[in-house]
Amino acid sequence: MTTILGLSGSLRSGSLNSSLLRAAVGQMPTGVTLEAGSIKGIPLYDGDVEAAQGLPEAVTTLKERIVATHGLLLVTPEYNNGIPGVFKNAIDWLSRPSADIPRVFGNRPVAVMGASPGGFGTLLSQTAWLPVLKTLGTAAYFGGRLQVSRASEVFDDDGTLVDERVRDQLRKFLAGFCEFVVAHQRGAR
Ligand SMILES: Cc1cc2nc3c(=O)[nH]c(=O)nc-3n(C[C@H](O)[C@H](O)[C@H](O)COP(=O)(O)O)c2cc1C
Prior knowledge:
Oligomer: single chain
Strand content: 5-15%
Order of helices and strands: EHEHHEHHEHEEH
Largest sheet: 6 strands, parallel
Radius of gyration: 16 Å
Bound molecules: flavin mononucleotide
């Protein structure tokens, strides 16, 4: 069995990116499960807190969820043409202590997708993730991409994906990433 952990980079209840993650859960190919995790409850990174108390429980729990799964799917919003601070902050905490980076992120299959109400569908924030994924030593997935633009029209008021074309794109993107994750699982990690 193969399991992927998905994280939305938005905290708000009506998040388009959390809606995209929920839609993805229902579009997974046979044999692969997508678990929707959350960055909620992760405080702002503070080196003094880390030195005095170690990692917050929410961070430790999420780290171990990443380690227990076979791939990571980041569903990123775009703020000011970059990565939203809350999402980058969560990954920064998850990268501590740095000696643990190989265990948590090293050679781990990671894909990025995202949704925005604008016309470019998180193109620039997805690009901004690249140096982060490289620095952490992940096995980034480049076999496909999914940038959901005009996303307010793609989801209804309940956050349900109502656009057939985007559903098809999502299914294809996930199928490609899952193939990548399974191939990785079979090879040496
Ligand atoms: C501070 C801020 C900056 C934003 N900058 C961008 C941007 O550069 N590009 C873009 O497409 N949308 C931008 N937006 C709009 C977001 O894409 C939109 O709020 C989106 O719904 C956020 O994702 P969410 O629905 O998952 O919370 C910005 C929103 C905020 C709050």
